[in-house]
Amino acid sequence: MSFEFDPSQFDAETLAIRAGFERSQNGEHSEPMYLTSSYIFDSAEDAASRFRGEAEGPVYARYTNPTVNLFESRLAALEGGEEAVATSSGMAAILSTCMAFLSAGDEVLCSADVFGSTTGLFSKYMAKFGVKTHYLPLGDMGAWEAAANEKTKLLFLETPSNPLCRIADIRAFANLAKGVGARLAVDNCFCTPALQQPLLHGADLVIHSATKYLDGQGRTLGGAVVGTHADMAEVRAFLRTCGPTMSPFNAWVFLKGLETLSLRMERHCANAQGLAEWLSQQDEVTSVNYAGLADHPGHALAAAQQSGFGGVLSFTVKGGRESAWACINGVRWLSLTANLGDAKTTIVHPATTTHGRLSDQERDAAGITENLIRISVGLESLKDIQDDLRRGLSCILAG
């Protein structure tokens, strides 16, 4: 028995578990994993029709696989988009977006505080092909309006941003993009569709590193782009030719992750809120970046366009790099890793890891200081997380 899940008729929690799945003649209850590189055609005529896109059916696993397609359908339903294209990583999703929609002579407007590899992609690699990128403060709309022109083809931003948790008014950026004939792409990694749906606020494209919260347990790499059928046809065409493809196994893992996404995000948000409030009261801490705090400059905006404030925060400590490293080295069981969105709480020093390949000038523009620490708050006991961080903070005084 099959049933078409119309996304408009069901809540997100139901879509995350049921959307897109049609049982085969075997009647399997769990989504199957299709481990095959190719498919058998009914006839030479059928093969030709499928290759031309005139007939439905899988063609080659580089760009058509039933397990991957199911993950794409489910994510698109959760984001309120028409279609999604899954990729081998989050950075592959951004690369595929660039290659689909940018040409030599085009210009990109990008927020200054994005993930370090995103900056590297635009500055080092897209620049080789004649694409110019302007990096602008996320909160200075006047600067974005002044920089936008007929050459602008893509606006790219994270909200909340990594790692300073700055918030962008998605609707305002969408209006600016439409005014100059550009697309707005929003990296929704920190919030996921459980907390924020950028397409509903006017964005054209949503970018995901599925490696993070969509998986939720740090197991596999993957990414995705979500948008209209027409735009995703362009992204999928690049995927078909160049092959930064998500594997069926990884797609199956992400499907399992989506089933508990809403539940996990609720706990991530609650723990992050409690930790942010606690850090704000510690003598060794000079500032806390988390939109859930009432004094955060983006608090009201985040509350308006998100249903929760997310599970990632950052904070600065007294002193410089030595103090930040002393705190990180002083924790006992928090995971020192650059990944985020994991059930396990992770801690990292952005200036020497995630943003370490940026120039000093680029780090300064992004607000990445030597005394900044990023925490991806996991699902453990909040008290236990606080106790371990207290050990780390005490090492600053000891040093």
TrEMBL record:
Pathways per UniProt: Amino-acid biosynthesis; L-methionine biosynthesis via de novo pathway; L-homocysteine from O-succinyl-L-homoserine: step 1/1
Pfam families on file: Cys_Met_Meta_PP (PF01053)
Record-listed N6-(pyridoxal phosphate)lysine modification sites: K212
Protein name as catalogued: O-succinylhomoserine sulfhydrylase
PANTHER family: CYSTATHIONINE GAMMA-LYASE (PTHR11808:SF80), TRANS-SULFURATION ENZYME FAMILY MEMBER (PTHR11808)
Entry EC no(s): 2.5.1.-
InterPro entries the record matches: Cys/Met-Metab_PyrdxlP-dep_enz (IPR000277), Cys_met_metab_PP (IPR054542), O-succ-hSer_sulfhydrylase (IPR006234), PyrdxlP-dep_Trfase (IPR015424), PyrdxlP-dep_Trfase_major (IPR015421), PyrdxlP-dep_Trfase_small (IPR015422)
SUPFAM superfamilies hit by this protein: PLP-dependent transferases
Gene behind this protein: metZ
UniProtKB keywords: Amino-acid biosynthesis, Methionine biosynthesis, Pyridoxal phosphate, Transferase
Coiled coil: none
Biological source species: Aequoribacter fuscus
